[in-house]
């Protein structure tokens, strides 16, 4: 627990998707500025043993990033049947949170609250908290309908670039998720992986990636 400005406490709310890293980093900068506690929360209706590989990949990446940024706790609410906003309010009160960081797509990413938006409900139920709405990242998004379901894959470094493979060996350079383009017989699509504690997305064309030295954000 940090011992700086104990009048402040940051809670970052992330949902399974590409915007989580940006939100956590924003919360980390705020916590560093105030020298105060930082918590990261994610809520899911499914039990942990029903999560698919992509969701587990996101959670692992977020948890590692939160640890690197000095977060006091990474909170995962599995098998949660209550409205997400109720869980946020509960954690906010338990941790004495004073500032909440949300993505601007939280309403559509999580669920529509019957009476009012998530933001309005939070303003009513935890009126002592400041809300920070962060714009959606402009990173490459794997759009539903254009790509098949993600599968675990690896990048093997070769002369001039990297080759996509699906069998894990000691020669693999990166592990991540591959999204194959719909309607192609070749391994062409998008590969997502962690590099230097950041989520990177690169194009794969016929099994090969020419360069991954560029941050795709």
Short description:
25% of the residues lie in helices and 29% in strands. With 217 residues, the protein is of the alpha/beta class. Strand 8 (172-180) and strand 9 form a beta hairpin.
Low-confidence region ranges: 106-116
Main beta sheet: strand number and arrangement? Answer: 6 strands, antiparallel
CATH fold title of the largest domain:
Rossmann fold
Question: Which sequence of strands runs across the widest sheet?
Answer: 10-9-8-6-7-11
Compute the separation of the termini in Å.
Answer: 31 Å
Portion in strands: 25-35%
Mean residue pLDDT? 80
Radius of gyration, in Å, reads 19 Å
- How helical, in percent, are the residues? 10-25%
CATH class label of the largest domain: Alpha Beta
Number of domains: 2
Q: Quick one: overall form? A: elongated
Assign the CATH architecture of the largest domain: 3-Layer(aba) Sandwich
The CATH homologous superfamily of the largest domain is called: HUPs
What is the number of E strands? 11
